[in-house]
Amino acid sequence: MRKSIDILSEIAENKNRISEYRKDLDDIAIAVEFLTHKKAKIDEDVRKYLLTYDMSQGDEWQGELENKAEGYQSDIYNAVSLSQRDTLQSIDDLRYIMGQINERISEALNQVTMLEDELRIESVSM
Questions:
Q1: pTM score of the predicted model
Q2: Packing angle of the helix pair 4-42, 64-125 (nearest 10 deg)
Q3: Using an 8 Å Cβ cutoff, are 62 and 56 in contact?
C-alpha cells in the first residue's frame, strides 16, 4: 500500500489540475462569446448592408463604373463571408476543446474520489 502522504500529494495534484482546467474553460468561454458577438455584429452591419446596397442609384455609377463597383461589392461580400465561415469554424473548434477539457475534469474528479477512498481504507486498516 502507498503512504498517506503520497495519496494526499496525488489528490492535491489532481485538484490543482482541475483548477487549471477550469481557468482554461473560463478563458475559452470568454473567447467564444467575443467571437460569437463579433460575428453577429459583422453579419448585421456589413454582410446584410453589402447585399442590399444598390450601386446603380446615382448617375455617376452608370455603365462601366457601376459594373466595377458591383464587382468590388461582390469581392468584399465573398471575403467577408469566407472570414465569417472561418470564424464559425474557430468557434466550433473552441467548443470541441471545451468538451475535451470537461472530460479531463471529470477524469480528474474521478481520480480524486478514488484516491480519497483509498485514503479512507488505509486509515481504517491502521
A1: 0.78
A2: 160
A3: yes
Q: How confident is the model at residue 21 (pLDDT cuts 50, 70, 90)?
A: very high
- Cβ pair 122, 4 in contact under 8 A: yes
Residue recorded with cell 489532481: 14
Alpha-carbon distance values, 74 to 2, 49, 66, 84, 86 (Å): 69, 12, 12, 15, 18
Pick 55 or 123 by higher pLDDT.
123
pLDDT range class, residue 61, cuts 50, 70, 90: very low
- Return d(Cα 92, Cα 47) in angstroms, integer: 21
Question: What b/e string do you get for 69-100 counting C-beta neighbours within 10 Å, with b at 16 or more?
Answer: eeeeeeeeeeeeeeebeeeeeebeebeeeeee
User: What single-letter DSSP state applies at residue 53?
Assistant: -
Residue ranges covered by each domain of the chain: 4-125
Alpha-helical segments (H) within the chain: 4-42, 48-52, 64-125
Cα–Cα distance, 48 to 99 (Å, whole number): 33
Q: What is the pLDDT of residue 27?
A: 98
Report the distance separating Cα 72 and Cα 92, nearest Å: 30
